[in-house]
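User: I'm curious whether this sequence folds into something compact or stays loose and floppy. Could you predict its structure so I can see for myself?
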Amino acid sequence: MRPRQAPPGAPGPPRSPPGARLRLIPLLLLLLLLLLAGGHAFTVFTIIPENSLNPNTSLWDMDHERLFHSKKTLPETVGSSSPLRSRSLLGHEGRKSLTQNLGQKPQEKQLSCDMLLKLSRYILKDTFGSSLAWNLFRFYNCDQEVNLPKIRIGTLKVVQHKVKPFLLHRVLQLLRNMGVLSEAQQSKAFNLLKKQMLNPRKAPLKPEKEQSGTCPEADQHLVPWRPGSDTSRTAVVGRGAALRLESSAAFHSLVIRDGGMLVFADCPRGPPITLRARYILIHDGGELHVGSERCPYGSRATISLYGRASDGAAVEGFGQKFLGVGRGGVLELHGRRTRSWTLLDKTLHPGGLRYGPYFSERRWGSRGLNLRILDAGTARVLAAARFDTHLRHGECGRLRSFLATQPPGTVVAAAVGDSAARSLTLETRLLLRDRLGSAHISRLRHRQPWALVGILGGDQPFAAEDKREYHGSGTTGLAVARREFLTYDGTGFTVTAFSGWIKGVPHNGFKVEASNGIILHLVDEVTSWLPGDRIVVASTDYSMHQAEEFNLLPCPECKSNQVKIDGSPLYLHIGEVIDGVDMRAEVGLLTRNILIQGEMEDSCYGQNQCQFFSFDTFGGHIKILKNFSSVHLSGVELKNMGQQILGSYPVHFHLAEDVDERGGYEHPTYLDNLAIHHCFSRCVAIHGTHGLLVKDTIGYDTLGHCFFLEDGTEQRNTFYHNLGLLTKPGTILPSDRSEAMCLAIRSNVYGDYVPVPSTDCMAVSTFWIANPNNNLIENAAAGAQDVGIWYIFHRVPTGQSEGQYPEGQAEYTPLGVFYNNRVHSNFKAGLFIGKGVKTTRANAEDPREYLTVDNARFRPHQDADPEKPRVPAVIDGLIAFKNNDHGAWARGGDIIFCNSGFSDNGIGLTLASDGTFPTDEGSSLEVTRSIFVGESSNFGSQGGQNSYWGKGANGEYRTLPRNKTFPIRGFQIYDGPVRMSKCTFKKFTPTVDRYSSAIGFFMKNSWQISPQNNVSQILMEKSVGLKVFFGRSGQWFGNNDNDGDKMSIFHDLDGSVTGYLDTFVGRADNYLLRHPGCLTVPRWNGLMCTGKFAQLYIQARRPENLTLSIARATYHSHPLRLQGVNRGAPYQQYQPVVMLEQAYIIQWDGKTPEDIILYPINFNRGDWLHIALCYPREAVFQVVADIYQRRTGMVHSVKHYLAAPSRASALNGTGERLFYFDRASGYLFVHLQAHEAREGHSYCSQQGCERIKIMAHMYPRDSWSCVPNPFPERPATTQRPVSQHPARDCTLAITSTPSVKYIRIQIQSLSRTDIQNHLTSAFIKINDTIFLFNSHGLFFMVVDACSGAVVSRRHFDTVTGENTATAITDYVQTSIKERSLVLVCSRDIADVMGSSEMPIFTRLGSAKPIVFHKEGSFAMLGYKGQAKPSWIKVINHAGYQKAASLQHYVPLKLKEYQCPANADEPLKFAFSQTHSEYISTEAAASWD
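Assistant: Here's the prediction. I'll summarize afterward.
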């Protein structure tokens, strides 16, 4: 809150409670330690009175909450200016001052918490640098909990100093909780720490009790207020009024001003309080409080804003139907602290069952016995059959044979259709009685309804059974048999069979559904979620409309990370890491105990865009203006908020400027844990506002951009751990609009202009970031009509912020922190970096509407100054999956993607340069340490507006992006230069319908492509069927004949893609690259060549619309025809990729242009080409060489070429500037060479771009006709690629919890049928190591859950072994230790002797005993320990089913495993021992 002048005699502003301030003390002490960690030994001061210690005191047991209690400050250490102003703020003098202070006596060293906080910012700034310091300490103060990003730092050196042990103990614990210190480091630190500990004291010292302070609603000065309901009354809470609202109330409007205060009473056992008004306005010292940070509101409170758009006049600056905060206003809303959202930790299947629910109903045409066979362990329907035992005598034999083929233990559901008794033999009736436990089948009569659900051949042949009597009346009612079962993973399910007659029509059918509610397994503890609350589960498929809402049910059996829902999910929601990419669905809580809502009409009315919306969109809104005194919202639900009117949004900070310390707010402004859902215009709009924290906020089912930065000036805002999903189009801005809206709304275009929806509009985004200097940390954009996160650039500030920065500044501004964000289920792109908005009004020259989507480039430089060095924009930890078009698209300079995962996108990632040969000289783009997956094991679900359902590469049906025929690509090369290193590709395999490739190229590309594009240390897994594809003529690719299509190229530096070192990969028909040593790869439509390659950039004028023909002299009969780009511009440009030190021939499809400029692009000093250009034989030339500074437009080092007497003298490369025109052949010859040095990725030299300008004077009647090849014939050099298989450093998994390590488990079992089909080896694969099993039986492999070390393995022979069941039981009970992953694989299981059931598998996580199928297959991923992790899997297949297999990424060292702190060292040693004994990383370890 900004400090305000108190009236005379009034008490000062309330101080933060000591207990709340003490929450930051461990962090502050840590920062003091880090500052001095690199120096000499030192002593950390304490503030413990001397008489409080005695010789038996152990500082280990001291509580830090006693340490700081004084308000004295450190003089001349902290100033009033920004703590992050300069890197030298805490230089030598600052350290000297601090050291002197630490040397003072205890009573002189007592600092207030706030002062320590400020001091700590200086320390952190000096230690880590300004960027990291600013992001760690932007918005925290002593009243707030600290929740820092996880940043790894070395800390053991701190322990080497003689610091008080109790301080180090607190610091080390804090570091571990923050995630910056591993348990191994902590263990080492504690060992050192113990040497410094004092003798333990006998009685622990009790910490002082934290003072609770006074909650706002308990203030003794508050006057109870029960105003009742009068909607014609305007209530004013003014000077001297301090009211406690104790009952519901309704007004026309409520104004709180002039120091007045309104506080909601908090009576958890009383009725909820609802305040209704057309508007509420808080200004000029007025305050509205519902709870506080220290005392979250415990009851239920509702602020309900009512009124139609046509009711009454708008309030100036605010509008209608609002909660507004003006100058000097205070709005403090703090609801119950709940977890806002988390991730699903176990996959939620449709119907709650792995294979989904099942329902079948038949009437006529189902006469006889209808049967369903189900797997009792998975609820999967394995077989369906009908036997007409009424008319056909042979059906009984077929029925008996059918049951004989079913394995014992399967579930059988039976129901009579019409009639089944006439031909049902006694033998068959007895079989059904004995095998299924039927009590009524022996007496089944004509047309008698009968239904049964039982276990085939079970030890206890009990069946659920029902029958009805048929009397000829036509209605019998239904015989219903229902029985509950349990899957291996513990899900209860019910199987129902029914049979009967209704109004003369037979009915029979079956139903399989989850029973007793469906339990969701979540990553985090959610005990704050209560029965009756409403949640949303995000889509994990292409359609955002697969998000589903559920109410929570009471669940006494649930663990702390589980909830039970009341409905049945329609779609698949993934809850695991699949193929190395974290696809776990977000699960958000929509309910809060403070609700702000708009009261709505039943349907759209009036001028509320009813042509686009059938529902009322005139909701409430919250608007905060500049110079408010204090605004903090936490634990608040906003529903039916926002209006399709500019400026009326659910939460809107309007031109509030700096709202943190820079703006004078000691308690920086924030929005925390809001649930904004079913709203009508955005979620949070930040307009001309800087330094706002938006944290743990959900935006769900909203119209228009959700988290929205408006004018392009908004900076230093932080979005931390927010969730946005189901972001739909709105009408306000062109970028909000859908195609239909874009075409219909034309009131702001010029003249008769018709917008082009795909380029002018259709950009609605969950996060619309209009300035790069903002922070996005751990957010999720889980479904937008267009884009998840869009960085858009305003060339100049727009709207009411016009003139606040110079033209182009936003494009040069460095990117804030982008870390660990998720984007999925978006149609156009998950992440989009590029484009801008039109910043001029519609006019005759450009008739498009103001703020229409326009072009822009992102090229970040230090201090947003293009004269200063570039600053890489780092996209760290992006997860992008199931986006229809792009996982991510980024255009600009120096953008780096790292530690990212791309899966199931139409195109994983496209990196595009910022210009022709980019205008930001030397810039490049890069992706490193990332994973690309084509078609993962997330098959998706039909429905929810998913458009395409077809066969995947593995033959199974799945959802598909864009179209069944769309050519899926992992990494798409557009122009360049781009670099890719240390990346892994999986599951890119073409099908009969579509091309899918790991690396592909921008289709129908008329732009240039740089030969500096390069890849290295790439892992192409065996599941990649097509590594590279250059396209073919046909659908999607068109003629595949544009300039960029022909020039597609990249450089395989180490051979990790091609298998050949230092190889360039280009299109097969590109003879500018080809030489006799090249290798053609027909499947790629490509070729691999060695050599040196660069670009020739050609500009041509007068005329500017010609097609260029260029050929290498060696292959003069195979010219490449280039159309060029910028047709109709002052010049035409072409950029062929050429092989250096070769001769090239250039011709045109018309008269040669009068002005031609040749740029040697990507040439190193000394690189050269020989160029022959065709001209009319009477042409006269002026040839000039110069160096062009493209950014400034300056030209220097001008040198004129002289005419040479011969071609040889012009091309000899002696350094003379000569040209030769051969009138006989019609060719002008020049030697094009780079004379200046080039750095890094610069296209040109450090001096500028060298070039040759050729100006030809030609007469109108001159004709031109040149010979095909003016160069002498020479044999082409041959240099074949050298085979290379480099080592690869690859990333295993990309997850939203990067501190958690995973191992990749794959289990493949074999049944007897598989072996008969010549499959020999079952196997278990751990990461990249395969263990083969060639014997019959069961194989156990035990992995330590804390380290990932293989610690045990065992084979059990089920063919010749005796007492196998007993041996397995003994092994599990006695040999497998706690905290173990247990992997079980089978090969040709025979009978497991000694038991029909194996209950010991329940000790490994199965919910029920295992019954093995003879000649079947079995696979299990189990766990032995006190916990039951959500990742446990059991697959138990009969012989006729597909062999059991599973793959899973298993997290190590989870908290629930209860790993010991010192577990790392011995287990790592065990793992290395296991490696040397068992594992062959080159192939596999056979295990007989």
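Summary: The chain has a mean pLDDT of 85. The longest strand covers residues 492-502.
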